[in-house]
Amino acid sequence: MTQDTRHPSAAARIAAFARDFDASRLSPSQRHLCGRSLADTYGVGVAGRNEHAPQAALDYLSKAGLLLPADSPAPSASSASLWGRSERAAPEIAAWWNGIAGHVLDYDDVTVPMVGHPSVALWPALLALAESRDLPGARVASAFVVGLEVICKLSHGMARNHYAKGWHSTASIGALGATVACAHLLALSETQLTHALGLAVAQVAGSRENVGTEGKSFQAGHAGAVAVRAASLAESGFEAGPGAIDGPFGYLRLYADGADVAPWLETLGQSPLELEASGLDVKQYPMCYATHCALDAILDLQATHKLGLQDVASVEVSTSRGALIPLIHPHARSGLEGKFSMPYAMAAALADGAVRLRSFTDLAVARPELQAFMAKVDARETDQPASRPWAEVTLHLRDGSLLKNKVETLRGSARKPLSDAELAAKLEDCLQWGGSRAGGDALLQQCLALPTLNGRAAVAALQSLALAN
């Protein structure tokens, strides 16, 4: 790919869009969507705070002297909160740790074009900066929209092949969108923003080889840390290559086989914004999104026909071409492996009548009856491509009969969103799993109030809910 000097670079196009986007442009319904996304991301982060990965990360930070202790007499004005904990850290460290906690359960939201999780790359970085500098909540909301816009536009042009080759797009695309979001939040100039993107490309990583391990959540946290670091360095005058995205040795050449994203970047900021056009799919089940249509289908069959594990001889799952790529553990042995296993999803749904946070302890996955049943689940892709997830489940019952159900519109998706009450119920389950006694509706309402508050007050209110006991 040779840079055409007659036209602005990809970084310059992105920078001009991010610089010109104004918070006043957001409608009440768009601000509402931002608040829902923040609530989901923060709630899932609180649910994940006590898991092994964030605890190991906390131990590392403590040994490295990177934490402000809980009993510090006066928190530094340049520090940010660790979600659901009393410790604080520098913004890029807080973004990293909060991203780990927010992704370790694989319960955070998804956008289809990205083949990944945008909000966990965006919100930890944005809240860390907003809190540390006490920036306006309205600007934080617009920064989220800007970051999501960039993530989706890049994803439309490159994400499918990028993901199929083994990149973890939550990290490898999310870091770029989060960097632009942070740069917008800090009101960087177009030149500074271009440098920030170059600095982000210098750090971008994330492999699907880490799927089913704690390394996956590290990569999500790394995306936020990359963003805070890149935007802050650019603000301080640190420079980088202007062709880092689409230059001859840039990101698109190295990470996406030279994909042409220019047509998509030309639509940046056009109505409808990606917040509404692609939207956010809120997970109902704390496991890989590739299982969710099949879970909707089997749980509907189970509820209608009053089935248990003992009633089913075998299960067939059919889905679109490429849909099973993330499901790399056909016979799960641990809780993390279970999150990326279609056989475990089907077995747990039949055994328990639900798939919840408690379904993914190591003990839950190790149940002998579920270990035996996983071999009876056959998941196959068809030749049919799909722009949206779908799955058909066929149950072969022990009495010789067959039951089928096909799901093409997922509950919780942007096309069939959860109501605020349904989202609040998920949040309450998350808060309780994380050890908080606060209500899910209280968390949702606090997040919806973000545009009316400054960063420190907004985060303090969220922390008071997470720490309620």
Q: What does this 3D model show about the protein?
A:
This protein is of the alpha+beta class and 469 residues long. The protein folds into two domains: 10-284 and 421-466, Orthogonal Bundle (2-methylcitrate dehydratase PrpD), CATH 1.10.4100; 289-407, 60s Ribosomal Protein L30, Chain: A (2-Layer Sandwich). It contains 21 helices and six strands. It has helices at 10-20, 28-48, 52-63, 91-103, 119-133, 137-164, 169-172, 174-185, 190-201, 214-235, 251-256, 262-265, 274-277, 292-305, 335-338, 342-352, 362-365, 368-373, 420-433, 440-448, 455-466; strands spanning 80-81, 88-89, 312-319, 377-381, 391-397, 402-407. The chain has a four-stranded mixed β-sheet. It has a two-stranded antiparallel ribbon with strand order 1-2. Helix 1 crosses helix 8, helix 1 crosses helix 9 and helix 5 (119-133) packs across helix 10. The longest helix is centred in the first third of the chain and has 28 residues, at 137-164. The N and C termini lie far apart (57 Å).
Q: Quick one: how many beta strands? A: 6
Query: What string gives the helices and strands in order?
Result: HHHEEHHHHHHHHHHHEHHHHEEEHHH
Distance between the termini: 57 Å
CATH domain class of the largest domain: Mainly Alpha
Largest sheet: 4 strands, mixed
Oligomer: single chain
Please work out how many helical segments DSSP would assign: 21
Proportion of β residues?
Answer: 5-15%
Supply Rg.
Answer: 22 Å
Question: Which ranges are low-confidence, i.e. pLDDT below 50, for 5 or more consecutive residues?
Answer: none
